[in-house]
Automatic annotation (TrEMBL), chain A:
Biological source species: Paenibacillus forsythiae
Family membership noted in the UniProt record: Belongs to the ABC-4 integral membrane protein family.
UniProt keyword annotation of Membrane present: yes
The protein's name: ABC transport system permease protein
ABC3 transporter permease C-terminal domain: residues covered: 290-409
Residues annotated as domain MacB-like periplasmic core: 129-256
Cellular localisation: Cell membrane
Domain of life, source organism: Bacteria
UniProtKB/TrEMBL annotation, chain B:
Native source species: Paenibacillus forsythiae
PANTHER family in the record: ABC TRANSPORTER PERMEASE YTRF, MEMBRANE COMPONENT OF TRANSPORTER-RELATED
Keyword field contains Transmembrane helix: yes
Protein name per Swiss-Prot or TrEMBL: ABC transport system permease protein
Domain ABC3 transporter permease C-terminal: 248-359
Automatic annotation (TrEMBL), chain C:
UniProt keyword list: ATP-binding, Nucleotide-binding, Transport
Pfam families linked to this entry: ABC_tran
Domain of life of the organism encoding this protein: Bacteria
Name recorded for this polypeptide: ABC transport system ATP-binding protein
Lineage, broadest ranks: Bacteria, Bacillati, Bacillota, Bacilli, Bacillales
GO molecular function, one term: ATP binding
Keyword Cell division (UniProt): no
Family designation: Belongs to the ABC transporter superfamily.
Amino acid sequence: MFRIKDALRALSIRWVISILLLVQFTYGLSTIAGTGNIFFNLHYLKINSVLDFDSTYLVVPGRITNGLQDERYTKEQVEEIYNKLKNHKDVISFGTYYADNIVLDTKTHPLDSRLIAEFTKTHVGFNDPFINTIVIDENYYRLLNLKLSSGHGFSAQDFRKNSTQEANILAGSYFKKYYKTGDLINDQYRIIGFLPDKYIVNNNTSNVYLKLDKAMILPMPEDRYNDYNLMLSRLHLTTILKLRPGANLEQLTQIIQFPGDDVKLSLRNLGEDIRHNIADNTYSEIPQMVLGLSFILFSVIGIVVTTMVSIMIRKREFGIKLALGESTLGIFSQITIENVIIGITGIGLSLVHFMWKYKRLLQFSREMNLASPLDLKMNGSILIIIFLVFMTIISISSFFVYLFLRRQELKSLIGGME
Amino acid sequence: MRRILNDIWISKKIFTMLFIGFLLTLLPILIALSTRNYYDEHFYYSINGHYKYYYSITLQNIKKTDFLTLQNIADSSFSSSSVITKDITIMEPEIGPIQVVGLLNNLWKPPLLQGTGIESDEANEIIAGKLISDHVGTMKIMGKEYHVKGIAGKDAGRDLINVFNFKMYVYLNEIPASVKRIFDKQDALELLVRSNQNPKNEMNRFISEVKQHDPEVNASTDNESPKYEAEKNSRQGVKEVLSYPYKLFLMALINCVNVSYLWIYVKRKEISLRKALGASNLALFVYIMSQLSICAGLAAIFTFFVQWLLTGLNLTIVNNTSYFVSLNLGHIIIGFLVTLSIAFLTSLVPLLHILKIEPARALKE
Amino acid sequence: MMELIKLIDLKKIYSHKYNKTFALDGINLSIKQGELIAVMGPSGSGKSSLLHILGLMDSPSEGEFLLNGKSLQQIKKHKVHKTRNQMIGFVFQYFALLKDYSVIDNVTLPLMYRKSRHKERIAKAKLYLEKVGLKEHIYKKADELSGGQQQRVAIARALVGEPELILADEPTGNLDRRTGEEIIDILQQLNSEGKTIVIVTHDLEVARKCNRIIELIDGKIHTDQFTKSL
């Protein structure tokens, strides 16, 4: 305790330099928090896809038009395309999905206020809580191969129901806090299992994905599956293929393309897209990384330099303490405590700065729950990254300080008393 | 001079740290300057050119005046101001949204990637952005056949090219009928007058001639410069991009202050001795400042060299990092001014110390 | 009387490129418990070097240093500070008090490094401050006291750890004659209670009050005479 008291006293004496160091720590660690978030997200994108990177291909339209010109084609033509895909030697499997939002019924069934708050997405201007949902057809379910235990996955029967009937669903792990298997949501959706903490494609044209922890997966009702307009739209926008290595993409693209359709479809490899996204974001993080590394360098120099000056100024104090029985290690720990106090205060201020600066983005990320490089958050992992950087700075600077302190001869410090 | 250099050499460890600090203070500032210029240029391209004065003229009830007449009046009224319409966005199914800009005189034309400009007396000529047409030739827009004379764009990085991608420049009297219908529906034609000299007189002349032609036309004017300035300064993306070099500048400057603090502390006996031998505070400050200035000057020259080397990679850098690196005389002058300022700021801590040091005190330690 | 310190052919050598300076050159010395010794000598005679070595603040270049019969080499380097804390108390010319600390905080410092309990520290510090006549001033800042009072605080601090040896470096050098005499009286009093005290001084009057005077010249013991018997 007396060391902390001494440290605070020492810091208040050199308050100008202490404040300058605090400014450095605040901006530096706040930048590290931002960069740490991006790299954490890039890592998350790299390892947590529910779909296999190399074999998964997304059907992507060349441009999004106001509406599909459905009157030119027939349901039979769409079915023929699917049949051709099914029989193609390069296609392992394929499936379709659509994204939906299920509004939570808070009126007939009282829900936990935390659950309501978690799913109320204020920034979209919709006051009722809703759950992001991916509705998948039977083929897609097989393609996903979720490896759920028996009785906790969909059966063929689940895909034969229509949209007004009760449906079985798979819920994200977040729901475990509030529901158990067998529970009903909105009197219609029965939870039969929980999803892994991974992410899934929720839009073939975008490079952000839906995290499954707070989402649901629903089997596609038969009436929706067979609806021609939806079928056509799914073919253009939300078809997923699992292909063999070296698949003939040109031939497959020709198969999915309607003759005369001015919307050109193409097949994009999921892994390539994500890796490209990761590379792009890594490049754009270079300035922040330069700033982060410079911050570490400057912080080390700053701490070492101010500590050296502080030791020189306090030669007398340290001399007296050493003469009275304090160890060099004791003096060293005294100095380290001073630097740790600055560092910890800096961590606090940097977190406040980060949360203030990215307040809206943090709220957006929390509400959207998307797997994207910009999914900013302040959670345990980010705190660990910040703490590791802080420890690195303290360790490196302490090493140099220790070398300096060891070089000081006790009798020369004693000389400083006079 | 030799003595100053010798003193720097004696404290080479400290001056190496200061050199790194100065380098990392100046480099981000220069990068921030060139990046800001780049995005400002980008902004001005997005509003069809950089001028000192921007005014809008809104003409209402202009049913009796055809666009060719209006164009002729503008041509005769404005001798130093470019007049264009505000961007009108139309949807072309094959292409997507197109921003149409009507030209009323020929004092400004967009930068071209290929082809030539358009003439007011030639029919159906346009300049189009790269994503409307990637080559000169004929094409149909909103049902009308146009001759694309030039492709608008600026080959300076991904973002700048984007500004012109969906723009279409056409003389007002050749504007597509659908745009004309929008004007009719709004019963208002918004014109932009841009000039480097105050265009008020020319605007008054234009309005009076329009009214002479049709007394029922209502005309109102507004100064657009503050709106553009506010728009330019509120670009969050640019602010975010620029915040990093500014932070680096601040951190590096703090580092320089810290190191100079150590330096003066190590030197306190020498300063004390110099004081004892009769040196004034001013003489000591000049002595300190000259050493720091030389170090900062060397760092500045090295920074300019690095900046110059990076200039060759500026398009790659801007595409990957959003920062634009360029070097011109203005940057060098500002760079030297910043160098002097940081040398001065760094000298402040030693100065305060010099004032406090008593001639005999430090010698006793 | 038990031998507290024994120095055998002790040397302290400073080497500068081709030159060797002998700060201490073959010192043989035995200090017994309860002695009150004055070390005298001109500037550069080796007084400070001897004091630094006796105070475990520096190590000899050659020779043997026995403290309580235990060789200095037997004391592990990282434990030297503990030995210093437990066995030696210091009194300096310029008092060496921490001016931002209160009197009591200054006095309790040696006990703090011994990790004594708070209550025990305060009780002991009060006891010794009373002994030097400063009980009234315990919560004052050190620099609010007069020179004599500050030196008394320093003596209380040297005593609080109950060391076997007190080293005093010019304890009266910064005080007027009357106050200086008071300080020497206190040291004499402590000596009469059994404390071993070594005083480095230029002042012959101070030296005369000691029972042994050692004179150093050029790093060697020039004279070593007992003025009073123990």
